[in-house]
Structure formats: C-alpha cells, structure tokens
Amino acid sequence: MNRRQFLTKTTAALAVASFPNLIPASALGRDNTVAPSNRITLGIIGCGRQSAHANIPGFLVQPDAQIVAVCDVDSWRLEGARKQVEAHYAGQKTSGVFKGCTTFRDWQELLARKDIDAVMIATPDHWHMIQAIAALKAGKDVSCEKPLTRNIAEGRRLVQVVKEQNRVFCTDSEFRTYNILRKSAQLVRNGKLGKLQRIITGTPKDTTLAAQPNMPVPPELDYEMWLGPAPAAPYTEQRVHPRHNDKGRPGWITIRDYADGMLANWGAHWNDIAMWASNTEHTGPVEVEATGTFAPAGNLWNVVQEFEAHFRYANGVTLTCKSDHPFIRFEGTEGWLQVDHPMHIELSNEDLLSWEPGPNDVRLRSMSSEKREFLDAVKSRQQPQYSAEGGHRTASLSHLALAAIQVGRKLKWDPVAENVVGDAEANQSLQPRPIRGDWKI
C-alpha cells in the first residue's frame, strides 16, 4: 500500500466510524459502485483521433477507473478531451456537474503527478518508447498504442525496463478481444486444421502525397514538442494532423520519420494474431525475405507503398504479410481458415465453428475489451495477454521486413540474440535513427 492509498483508506475509515450517516453509499462502494479509494487513476497522453473515439470512451465506461488528467500538444484537442471526460462524469452525478480533469501540454508534467496510477499513451509512433519508458520509471503502469516501437533496440529496452521497474505493461490492440479471432487462434493451437504450415496476413495499401508548401504553425499547436526526437522539419498540416478535427486520418502515419505505414500499423493487428495462434508470440522468425516499393523521392508521405514479406519460424511455419486487403488466413495439413475484415470467417470445415475446447485442450481466455484487460492486470499485478514482449516481437516483424527490403536479400535472424547472422549491412540498417535533442530511452 502506498502513502496515498494508506491516507485515503485511513481517513475514510475514521470518517465512517465517527459519522456513518454522512458518508454516501458510493464512497463505501455500495449500490454497484466502486469506492474512490479503489479506483485506478488514469492519465491520457495524446488526445487525437484514437483517444477521442476509442481510448477515452473505453476507460470512461469502466467503473473502477477514473481519468484524472489528459495531455496533448494541441490545445484544441486537449480541451475537447477535458470536456469529453468531465461531461461523462457529470452525467453520473445528480448535480450534473463535474470538474476534476487536469490538462497538461507537457507529458512530463503529467507523469510527475504522484496520484496517477497508470497512463494510456496514444501519441505518434516516434514518441511511444520515450514516453512509455519515462512513465515506467515514474512508477506508472502503462498501456501503449501499437505499433510499439520504431526499431528493435527500443523494444528490447522496453521489455527490460518493465521487468526492472516491476510495472504492468499492455500493448493496446482490440483484435485479441474479437471472439472470432480468439476462436480462430484456438482452433489452430489445438490442431483442428492439422499441422499448421502457412499463415498469410494482408493489410490495406498506403497512399502517397507530393511535397507540400510550408505553412505557419497554428497557434494551438506546440509543434516543437510534437516533433520531439524526430528530425527538424517545416510545419505543413499534412505532416501532422487535420486542424480542429479529431476524425480525420493524420498525415504522420505515412511519413517515415514518425511511422512505418500499414506494414507496421495494420500489420501489428494481424501479425499478432498470427503469432498468438502459432504460439510464437514471444520469439521471432529465423529467416526473413521481403520486397517492396516506396513513394517517389521527395514525396511527403513516403512509407512503403506495396510489399510482400516472408518470415519462416523455427517450427517450420511460414508467415507472409503483404499489402492487399485486411485479412488473415491459416493453412494446415487438414484444412484452412480465413478471416476477412470486418471479421467474416470462412473455413474448409464449417463444423469447426461450433467446436469448443475440452478440459485437456488449449483454451484462450476471452476478453471483453483491451481496456478491461489492462485494468485487471493492474489490479492482479500480472502481465496482460498482449504484453510488452508480445508487442515488441510483433513490431520487430515490420522492422525486419524493411531491413530485408533495404538490403535486397534474405536475412538469417537469431531471435534470441536479436541480430542478423553474418550480415553487417543488414544489422546496420536495423540500428536506431539518431534522436534529436535530449530525449532518451
């Protein structure tokens, strides 16, 4: 029990003993409510599209959590997040009024709050690991958007810090909560397709955009903080995110200084399910081969456009990830199974749809939501299903594919040492990019 928890619980106990009729039922955890002292206090770092429409609503509906702070470098988005949080909690009060969500422009100030138990990180990809590791060192449990990392060294460092700090870390991805994907993985793990031979995943294709004119930085945006560790670059709206709009797709997703496009983004969804189903989620491939084409030189949106990457694992299973449409397909010696987004399943044997594991079979635990999974892990102090190690291994696939495309040859990968065997050029291509400024992991 930390000091805040001790003081809160002691004060509440004394108050109940002295004035039992003055304490509302909600403060005692009755009437299907959770006492404030038992709620997990949360800070949201990054209030863009994903937070506004998934992360904040996902935590607001959890009775044992309370969002107490939000942070963003864009004051318009920051104010929108504050209003969203306070409007929800106001709706739960008879007075219809609630004030109590603090706003921060600097995420370091949010992490300095001692009364925050955990944080949700939903910033652009180039910020993920710097903020996640700082949060872990500040004593916070962390849920972080995927893809977790921009390079393999970042991921391994993250896993180490989670262990060193004894914190809970969740790779935030909703795909494991979809029953159709859980059941698919369960069928594969239990050999219902025979011996698994091949997995194929598909992602949408990224678009590109020519160079854009420089623009004045909007007054609501701290652009220097938005860039952070990334190279200095002039502001243009298509580099960052649409102004005064939390629904539009941000441009940074398609710029290599900040992200790796659909290969890493949608790939993190499907390839995680592939590794979950084949029981390889905490290891890596032993061979990697990939081809791909990039946008014309000078384009602003410059991530890989079309690609096909092949990964072979030590157990003989091959995984192919390619630009196509969003889907996953499993092929075994006795059948196949394919799920196309949005979660339409086809099987070679439709009778398998009704199959349920018995007492001696592998049963994968169902999850109502990834937010619930994180909160339960915070309470139990056990790592969630999609842990830091799993998120790191999934992200590593996109880094390895890009390295194979860059050097133009097959790579022999050591998943334990996490380096390319006998290929100095490939290992060099996997090294982290220089970090601008004083930001460190």
Give a topology summary.
Elements: H1 3-18, H2 25-28, E1 40-45, H3 49-60, E2 65-71, H4 75-90, E3 102-104, H5 107-111, E4 118-121, H6 128-137, E5 141-145, H7 152-165, E6 169-172, H8 179-189, E7 196-203, H9 223-227, H10 261-277, E8 287-294, E9 304-312, E10 318-323, E11 327-332, E12 335-340, E13 344-347, H11 370-380, H12 388-407, E14 411-414, E15 419-420, H13 424-429
Parallel strand pairs: 1-2, 1-4, 2-3, 4-5, 5-6, 7-10
Antiparallel strand pairs: 7-11, 8-9, 8-14, 9-10, 11-12, 12-13, 14-15
Structure, explained:
There is one protein chain. This protein is an alpha/beta fold and 441 residues long. It folds into 2 domains: 3-175, NAD(P)-binding Rossmann-like Domain (Rossmann fold, 3-Layer(aba) Sandwich); 178-207 and 257-429, Dihydrodipicolinate Reductase, domain 2. The protein is 33% helix and 19% strand. It has 13 helices and 15 strands. The strands form 2 sheets. The chain has a 9-stranded mixed β-sheet with strand order 13-12-11-7-10-9-8-14-15. A 6-stranded parallel β-sheet has the order 3-2-1-4-5-6, with helices on both faces. Strand 14 (411-414) and strand 15 (419-420) form a beta hairpin. Helix 10 packs across helix 12. The longest helix has 20 residues, at 388-407. Residues 6-31 have low confidence and may be disordered.
Give a brief rundown of this model:
This protein has 441 residues and is of the alpha/beta class. The chain is built from 13 helices and 15 strands. The longest helix is centred in the last third of the chain and has 20 residues, at 388-407.
